[in-house]
Amino acid sequence: MRWLHRIENGILTVLVLILVALAGAQIIMRNVFGGGFSWADPFLRTLVVWTAMLGALAAVREDKHIAVDVLQRFLPPGAQRLARVLTLLFAAAVCAALAWYGWGLVGVDLDGDAKSEFGLPNWLLESILPIGFGLMALRFVVRAFATPTHVPGLSAPELLHDAGRMNAGDEGQAR
Questions:
Q1: 162 found inside a domain
Q2: Digit-coded pLDDT (tens) for 25-72
Q3: What Cα–Cα distance (Å) separates residue 38 from each residue in 35, 68, 124, 126?
Q4: How large is the average pLDDT for residues 80-104?
Q5: For residue 143, is it within any domain?
Q6: Which in 49, 70, 90, 103 has the greatest CB count within 10 A?
Q7: Residues 3-23 as b or e (16 or more Cβ within 10 Å = b)
Q8: Secondary structure (DSSP) of 108-151
Q9: What is the pLDDT of residue 113?
Q10: Is 122 part of any domain?
Q11: What local confidence, expressed as pLDDT, does residue 92 receive?
């Protein structure tokens, strides 16, 4: 699975770099030359959607997605586990519904020959919606029954591992 995670992270990194470079080039071209690439703005919008979907997929993979766990913190451990499972299964159901309706959107454009301003078929550009939400639904189901990587109330798993590990006296020894 690590190779799959590396591929996902690599694609996400490349998309963000392209997004930043192209947006920067557009700004410079508009300010210096009075115009930019005609296809760049729609392409940037598409890249934002792809980047957001792949980023959300990575967040679910790492259990770093947005979660409301205020109530969960005050429950006993067994009830915390049940609340986590129910919450993640609900998130999976919502993502599955969004994947289903995303597939319907792709299906509408799949029947037609509509193309984007930069020449790619619209269905191809929209395909990230059902694919991304479908994969998120699967990951939420897996996360529901996996060991949590964080404690409710702590914002990052690193806090669990680093808390109390180093104090002021140990800092010099660690170097």
A1: no
A2: 999 999 998 888 888 888 999 999 999 999 999 888 887 777 666 677
A3: 8, 42, 20, 20
A4: 92
A5: yes
A6: 103
A7: eeeeebeeebeebeeebeebb
A8: HHHHS--B-TTSSBHHHHHTHHHHHHHHHHHHHHHHHHSPPSS-
A9: 81
A10: yes
A11: 96
Burial class (CB in 10 A: 0-12, 13-18, 19+), 26: middle
- Which residues span the domain enclosing 125? 2-66+74-156
The model carries a pTM of 0.75
* 164 or 4, higher pLDDT: 4
Cite the DSSP H helix spans in the chain.
2-33, 40-61, 70-73, 77-111, 122-126, 128-145, 157-162, 171-174
Region for residue 153 given its phi and psi (left: phi exceeds 0; alpha: psi -120 to 50; beta: otherwise): left
Q: How many domains does the chain have?
A: 1
In a domain, 173, yes or no: no
